[in-house]
UniProtKB/TrEMBL annotation:
Region entry Disordered, spans: 88-115
UniProt name for this protein: GntR family transcriptional regulator
Keywords assigned by UniProt, alphabetized: DNA-binding, Transcription, Transcription regulation
Keyword DNA-binding: yes
SUPFAM superfamilies xrefs: Chorismate lyase-like (SSF64288), Winged helix' DNA-binding domain (SSF46785)
Pfam families reported for this sequence: GntR, UTRA
Highest rank taxon of the organism: Bacteria
Amino acid sequence: MPFGEQPAYLRVAGDLRQKIVDGALPPHTRLPSQARIREQYGVSDTVALEARKVLMAEGLVEGRSGSGTYVRERGTLRGIVRSGYRSADDRTPFRQEQADERVKGTWESHSEQEDATAETAARLGIEPGDRVMRTRYLYRTEGEPMMLTTSWEPLALTGRTPVMLPEEGPLAGCGVVERMAAIDVIVDNVQEEVGARPGLAEETLALGGVPGRAVLAVSRTFYASGRPVETADVVVPADRFTFSYHLPVR
């Protein structure tokens, strides 16, 4: 569609976006008010409001309660390296996330038993309501929340074993492959699906963002001879990080 045929709110949003990119509206600058946009571009209040909504949805601006809308700081995207399986002797600080060992940080984790939801049950090949161990992790680098992970393991497999709690016991933090091997379950495959979506309120709160802001989400499942033994959701802020996959060629 030629530029002149774009809806008015997209033309206004595009011009404001360019000013942000060019530095005419630097970070922490207050965005022109709705009335100012209306006057400057000769558009209606509705068009001005929709243009502001576009910039907010793109993560270029953010609202501050009782103050207005401001241009966001645009940080440099940092990569999270995800590689193939590594042995226990080559364990990384990301543990079962298999990420960049050069990055140092801290983990917070909490495990508790719960009934499997229909979605979790489908991913683990069990029945809804079957008991699972849910573990939630928050990873920080230099105090900054970086990655939120929630994993589920069927207690029919790990219950009453030394690896029932992923972060406690003799194999605490060793990752799924080593822990399952300790109970004679040989993990031989892992599947990951990567996508982007609006962050849930509890996710973005934990990661230091605004509800609805885009996140990168990895749905991961480990298998042993075709049987799912662990499934997890890995979430990172899409405006601060990218995923980089380093996989061995066999």
